[in-house]
Design a protein that fits this description.
By secondary structure, the protein is mainly beta. Helix content is 9%, strand content 25%. The chain has one helix and 18 strands. It has one helix at residues 178-194, and strands at residues 3-6, 10-11, 23-26, 30-31, 43-46, 50-51, 65-66, 70-71, 85-86, 90-91, 105-106, 110-111, 125-126, 129-131, 145-146, 149-152, 168-171, 174-177. A ten-stranded mixed β-sheet has the order 2-4-6-8-10-12-14-16-17-18. Strands 7-9-11-13-15 form a five-stranded parallel β-sheet, with no helix packed on it. The longest helix is centred in the last third of the chain and has 17 residues, at 178-194. The chain is elongated, with a radius of gyration of 19 Å. The termini are far apart.
Length: 196
């Protein structure tokens, strides 16, 4: 079978399936969690969610667009493809990802527990919450876009000017807005320079 269109969700969790068709178009969700599938087809379209947790898949196809959430928890994936777009939440905690690709677009939340990377890419756009609380990220790119909430690991992170003033910022359980965060950082910097 080389070409398959599924008009609903393709649910193969814990099944014995080892291979997917070369061209796969799923009009609902695709869930292959805990299967023996090792490779995704290069021509893959998923209109709904995509669950790949606990598989041996090592890479995602270039320009992959997933309409709902994408879950790659516990996979050996180390690098994400260019052109990746996720319509819902992007779940990749406990993964081996070393960095996020430039121009990554995520319509929902990004949670990043136990991640190895220290910087965010240019052109990152997040529609929900961007949780950096368990990372060592200390600088943010100028063109970062977050529509929901930004959770930071430290209280000395300088925010890019592109973030809107009313964006909710949380750090160590304390919430504020981007405007107040910038004002506090500016005041601290002015006080530090006063004593130089």
């Amino acid at each position: 079978l080389n070409d398959l269109t599924v008009t609903d969700t393709l649910y193969l969790v814990h099944s014995g399936v080892k291979r997917l068709p070369k061209r796969l178009n799923v009009l609902g969700g695709l869930n292959i969690t805990a299967t023996k599938i090792k490779e995704l087809p290069p021509c893959l379209r998923v209109a709904g969610h995509m669950g790949l947790a606990f598989t041996n898949i090592e890479r995602l196809p270039e320009n992959l667009k997933v309409g709902g959430y994408l879950n790659i928890f516990g996979t050996p994936i180390e690098e994400l493809p260019k052109g990746l777009e996720v319509g819902g939440d992007f779940l990749f905690s406990s993964s081996k990802i070393k960095e996020l690709p430039e121009n990554l677009k995520v319509g929902g939340n990004i949670r990043s527990d136990n991640l190895k990377f220290k910087t965010l890419p240019k052109g990152l756009e997040v529609g929900g919450r961007l949780d950096l609380g368990q990372t060592g990220i200390s600088t943010l790119p100028d063109c970062l876009v977050v529509f929901g909430e930004l959770a930071l690991p430290e209280n000395n992170v300088v925010l890019p000017l592109g973030l809107h003033d009313d964006l909710k910022i949380t750090c160590r359980g304390v919430s504020t807005t981007a405007r107040r965060w910038r004002e506090r950082i500016a005041t601290e910097m002015a006080e530090d320079n006063f004593f130089i």
